[in-house]
Amino acid sequence: MPSTPDALPVVIIGAGLAGLTVALHAAEQRPVVVLAKRHLDEGATAWAQGGIVGVLGSDDSIDSHVRDTQQAGAGLVDEGAARFIAERSAGAIEWLVKQGVAFSPDPSGPLGLHLTREGGHTVRRIAHAADATGRAILEALLDAAKRHPNIRLHEQWMAVDVITSRHLHREELPRCYGVYALDIGAQRVETLPASAVVLATGGVGKVYRYTSNPDTATGDGIAMAWRAGCRVANMEFIQFHPTCLYHPEERSFLITEALRGEGAQLRLPDGTRFMAAHDERLELAPRDIVARAIDFEMKKHGLDHVWLDATHLGESFLKEHFPTIHARCLALGIDITRQPIPVVPAAHYTCGGVVTDLRGRTDLPGLYAVGETTYTGLHGANRLASNSLLECVVLGRTCAAQLLAQGPAALAVLPAWDESQVENADEQVVISHNWDEVRLLMWNYVGIVRTTKRLERALARIKLLRSEIDEYYAAFRVSRDLLELRNLVECAELIVRSALLRHESRGLHFSRDFPEALPVSFPSVLVRAARGRKLKPLGLSG
Question: Strands, DSSP E only, in 229-268?
Answer without folding.
Answer: 232-233, 238-245, 265-267
